[in-house]
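Researcher: Sequence recovery benchmark, item below. Answer with residues only.
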C-alpha cells in the first residue's frame, strides 16, 4: 500500500472517530514483500483513558481488600516487547502490581495476546485459556473481586456462535490467568459494529463497575448514553433521572468522592436531518446542544454536571482514549490523544500538567495506565503515517523517558490467538 493511500485512510478513520461514528475499515502500511492483508471488516471500537477501548486503570493508593478472587503475586512468562498495536484493553491491578494489556489492532488484524508490564519490562504470560482476539475492549480493576474485568471488543473477521459468546462474555484476569464469568445479563452489542463497546470505570463509592454504551445504527444518532453497572456477578441497566448526553470522551475515577466522572465533548443539538433518525425528539432536553466541554459525576443513581469549560483541549476536547490514570499523589488524570498531554482533575476543574523533555510522539488510541511505582506507562498506538507503534514511555511525575527493550515480537493473524474457555 502506498503511504499516501494509508494517510488518507487513517485521516478518514480519525475524522469518523472524532464525529463519534465508528470506522468500518482500517488498513495499515506494510512491506511490499508481504502478502495483502485482509481489511478490517467490522467496526473499530474505541473506549476512552482510559482502552478502550480502551481502556482503564485503578488508583494506586486504594487499599487492597479481601475478595473471592486472590490474584497471584507474580506471573510466569517470557520477557519481550509486545507487537505493534493500537486499541488494546489495559488495566492496572494494585494487588499484584501488574499492568495488563490484552488484544488490540496490529498489522495482521485483531490480536488475542496478553502482556504484563512489571514496572521494568514486559512479560508475555504462559496461558492455557484466553479470550478471543479483539480490539477496543473495555477493562478495569474491580476492587471487590480483586480482578481485572474485561468486556466487549470487536473481532477482525466474522465469527461463529462460540466465538460470539466469548466476545459477549465477561472475563476476569486474576493475576495469572483468565477466567470467563457467566452473567444473567450483559450490555447489548452495537448493531453497527456487532460488538459491546464503551467507556469503563470503577465506582468505589458503590462498589460497582460502570460501563457507558451508545447504540450505533446506520442513519441513527443517540441522544444519551446507557449506563450499565456490574456488581461482581451480573450487569444491570441503570435508569438515571438525568441521562448522560451521548458525547462522552472519557470516563475516569474521582478520588475525592470515590465516584466516576465523565468528560463530555461539546456537540450541536441532535435533530433528524434527511435519512438520519434520532433517539429523542428534536428540541427536547435530551437533544440539547452542549456549547462547551463539561464534566459529569455519577452519584450511584444519576448523573450531575459539576464543571464546564476547563476540560482537556477546551472547546476542542481531543480526549479520545482518555484512559483513567492516577499518579503517586492520587490525582485523577487523562492523556489527550494526538498531543500526548497530561491533565489532572482536582475535584473542581481540569488543568494541564507541566512536563520537561521530549515525550511520546503524537498518536491516537495508545494504551495508558499507572504502574506499581505510581508512574504512567504509555504503549503503542496509531501514528500517522507510520501505522501501529510499539514504543513504551514512562512518566515519573515530572518528565518522560522511553523504555529501551528488545525488538518486538511478531504478531500472528487473529484466529491463531483464540483459545476457547472450555479447551
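Model:
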Amino acid at each position: 500500500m502506498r503511504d499516501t493511500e494509508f494517510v488518507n485512510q487513517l485521516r478518514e478513520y480519525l475524522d469518523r472517530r472524532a464525529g463519534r461514528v465508528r470506522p468500518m475499515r482500517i488498513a495499515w502500511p506494510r512491506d511490499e514483500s508481504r502478502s495483502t492483508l485482509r481489511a478490517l471488516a467490522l467496526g473499530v471500537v474505541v473506549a476512552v483513558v482510559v482502552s478502550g477501548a480502551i481502556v482503564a486503570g485503578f488508583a494506586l493508593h486504594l487499599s487492597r481488600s479481601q475478595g473471592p478472587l486472590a490474584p497471584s503475586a507474580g506471573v510466569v512468562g517470557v520477557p519481550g516487547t509486545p507487537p505493534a498495536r493500537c486499541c488494546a484493553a489495559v488495566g492496572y491491578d494494585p494487588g499484584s502490581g501488574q499492568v495488563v494489556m490484552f488484544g488490540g489492532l496490529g498489522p495482521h488484524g485483531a490480536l488475542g495476546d496478553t502482556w504484563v508490564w512489571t514496572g521494568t519490562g514486559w512479560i508475555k504470560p504462559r496461558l492455557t485459556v484466553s479470550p478471543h482476539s479483539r480490539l477496543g475492549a473495555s477493562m478495569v480493576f474491580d476492587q471487590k473481586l480483586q480482578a481485572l474485568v474485561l468486556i466487549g471488543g470487536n473481532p477482525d473477521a466474522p465469527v461463529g456462535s462460540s466465538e460470539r459468546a466469548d466476545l459477549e462474555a465477561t472475563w476476569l484476569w486474576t493475576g495469572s490467568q483468565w477466567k470467563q464469568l457467566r452473567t444473567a445479563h450483559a450490555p447489548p452489542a452495537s448493531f453497527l459494529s456487532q460488538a459491546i463497546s464503551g467507556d469503563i470505570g470503577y465506582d468505589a463509592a458503590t462498589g460497582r463497575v460502570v460501563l457507558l454504551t451508545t447504540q450505533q445504527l446506520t442513519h441513527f444518532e443517540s441522544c444519551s448514553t446507557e449506563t450499565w453497572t456490574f456488581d461482581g456477578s451480573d450487569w444491570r441497566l441503570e435508569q438515571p433521572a438525568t441521562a448522560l448526553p451521548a458525547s462522552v470522551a472519557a470516563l475516569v475515577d474521582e478520588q475525592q468522592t470515590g465516584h466516576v466522572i465523565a468528560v463530555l465533548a461539546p456537540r450541536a443539538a441532535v435533530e433528524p436531518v434527511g435519512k438520519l433518525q434520532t433517539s429523542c425528539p428534536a428540541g427536547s432536553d435530551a437533544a440539547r446542544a452542549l456549547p462547551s466541554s463539561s464534566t459529569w459525576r455519577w452519584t450511584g443513581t444519576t448523573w450531575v454536571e459539576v464543571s464546564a469549560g476547563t476540560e482537556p483541549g477546551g472547546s476542542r476536547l481531543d480526549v479520545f482514549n482518555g484512559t483513567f490514570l492516577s499518579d503517586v499523589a492520587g490525582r485523577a488524570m487523562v492523556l489527550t490523544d494526538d498531543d500526548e498531554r497530561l491533565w489532572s482533575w482536582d475535584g473542581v476543574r481540569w488543568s494541564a500538567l507541566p512536563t520537561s523533555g521530549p515525550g511520546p510522539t503524537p498518536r491516537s488510541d495508545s494504551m495508558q495506565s499507572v504502574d506499581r511505582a505510581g508512574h504512567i506507562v504509555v504503549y503503542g498506538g496509531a501514528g500517522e503515517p507510520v501505522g501501529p507503534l510499539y514504543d513504551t514511555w514512562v512518566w515519573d511525575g515530572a518528565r518522560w523517558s522511553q523504555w529501551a527493550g528488545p525488538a518486538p515480537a511478531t504478531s500472528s493473524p487473529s484466529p491463531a490467538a483464540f483459545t476457547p474457555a472450555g479447551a
